[in-house]
Amino acid sequence: MAKHTIIFDKRPRILSTGTVAGPKECAGVVGKYVDKALADDMFGESTYEKAECKMLTYAIGKAIENAGMKEEDIDMMISGDLLNQIISASFAARDFDFPFLGVYGACSTMSESLALAAALIDAGYFKRIVAATGSHFSSAERQYRYPLELGNTRPPQSQWTVTGAGGTVVADGGSDIAVTGATFGKVVDFGITDVNNMGAAMAPAACDTILTHLRDTGREADYYDLIVTGDLGALGSRIVKDLTWEKGVDIQPNHVDCGEIVYNVIEDEFQGGSGAGCSAVVFSSYLYDKLKRREINRVLFAATGALLSTVSSGQGESIPCICHAVSIENVR
Amino acid sequence: MAKHTIIFDKRPRILSTGTVAGPKECAGVVGKYVDKALADDMFGESTYEKAECKMLTYAIGKAIENAGMKEEDIDMMISGDLLNQIISASFAARDFDFPFLGVYGACSTMSESLALAAALIDAGYFKRIVAATGSHFSSAERQYRYPLELGNTRPPQSQWTVTGAGGTVVADGGSDIAVTGATFGKVVDFGITDVNNMGAAMAPAACDTILTHLRDTGREADYYDLIVTGDLGALGSRIVKDLTWEKGVDIQPNHVDCGEIVYNVIEDEFQGGSGAGCSAVVFSSYLYDKLKRREINRVLFAATGALLSTVSSGQGESIPCICHAVSIENVR
């Protein structure tokens, strides 16, 4: 059987985060914790895509600043996003004078980049790496679905792409919050073809990676104060709890989904938030604050991604999904 | 200054490769060396995208088979491609029961995935990883440029996306061909906005990473038998030789570009081949064969990527580019 989980002997630390989110998001749980709450989701730019890129650039720069560091202290950035050819990440990287590792894991990008950053630091190759991602409702909507101007009705199983970005500085020391392990997921496809039902499509991947992580580490689910998924939404969260329960693991008491909690009042968001920025912002602001305050001390952060494109769906394909998980613990 | 280069103490080995290419490509230099030469670039599929995915799946499976291994011997695959949301890689990963790390580096994907695979093996996290990528002329053309049916005239500075895929098995031993180091590139943007002139856009990134690699390792250019770029084409190759020369480094005697050599007879291909599959196929077939025969023993493999999208170009942006380099040496 393939080996999925790495335990990091040197336990790389999360030094800081940087976060920014849009007005709808800041009306919810992350509003009090983000570094910048946007009054206008255009962020002073002329297009949604440029606004998304600017948010990501801001989150990376702010994370570095919050670590008390300068650009030249950083060895690398690992980032990706939802836009075609991950242009937000690539154009953000253009503004920084350190190497760039582009990744694509759709909405699992935050845990994928955190896992890779921790691995490259744990191995001793680098000292400080920024892991970051983001998304924008309006750029995602027009790329993946319909032009906003059409005013299409959204089905009840749909989610709302989070406008926001989050970055973290992972380092070889300097904080008590450590990335202690990572479980890399495999692609799981349960045959869902409804592109509006991402939660159902991604839940089996989350189930697979969470169970693999617990098996590989010999831990029970209650080892963690929180098992955090990225953007399964309300329906997807119910499904992942059912699926793990069927396999004899009860994550119900300590499971929370970033997409399910990101919006306080549900109007058009239906199942909740989604997008790479969803777990990035919720983890890097709200949950990171709880970790720093020691209200929680052990988190399994398992963001999921739906690896479809409009072309694959148009050609009748189902939706392959993935989940990468990192365990984050207070180690003092 | 950010640290760009890793020297791999354990020198992970390239165990095997698997390659497939289209008819136009197999009329050229790789024809004698690929595992499968396609008579029809549809590869029995109904769409170009599905053909591209099938090529990548084939290359991964064949690399595993050529290593004398089975699927269950592999710990992970690292892959990406040019299609939106890297669907070729994601859908190829669906066919295998090991973890998947999605990366995006455009045409630099082969060196990016090789560098990451070597790092994760050198660190002792995994034993055997497949690094793979591919591209398809017809899927790239209709995604990035125009529908083929339009019959658009191609400008003389343009290149031809290679139809093909290549995969390698990187392992913790078992061969004399080692990945001895990796240099991760930063984004370089010289302000080129002509989407048909990728060679000119990417050459400065290649120059930056090659010079950084030589500086970090204290090596002269003639340490390497070959300094191999990915798909700069004829014009881009001239530019990278000029740019490095201006910096006091002469790569002219040992530089070769996969895009410049992949097609024997230039008809519509103008500057030569391009695409993630270009360096993947040329390296994994033709150059790998020369390494095995010890006709060459030290190669710096520096594939470049143009990190644009149709949206970024449409919004007036220039083309940010990147180059990741791996040094590959016979170490017996």
Question: Can you describe what's shown?
Answer:
Two copies of one chain form a homodimer. Helices cover 34% and strands 22% of the residues of chain A. Chain A is built from ten helices and 14 strands. Chain A has two domains: 5-171, Stage V sporulation protein AD (Peroxisomal Thiolase, Chain A, domain 1, 3-Layer(aba) Sandwich); 179-330, Peroxisomal Thiolase, Chain A, domain 1 (3-Layer(aba) Sandwich). Chain A is of the alpha/beta class. The relative contact order of chain A is 0.20. Chain A has helices at residues 23-26, 48-66, 87-94, 109-122, 137-144, 198-217, 233-246, 258-261, 276-292, 310-314; strands spanning 5-7, 13-21, 36-37, 76-79, 100-102, 128-135, 160-161, 164-171, 177-183, 226-229, 255-257, 273-274, 298-306, 321-330. In chain A, the strands form three sheets. In chain A, strands 1-9-14-13-10-11 form a six-stranded mixed beta sheet, with helices on both faces. In chain A, strands 3-2-8-6-4-5 form a six-stranded mixed beta sheet, sandwiched between helices. In chain A, strand 2 (13-21), helix 1 and strand 3 form a beta-alpha-beta unit. The interface between A and B is large, with 59 and 60 residues.
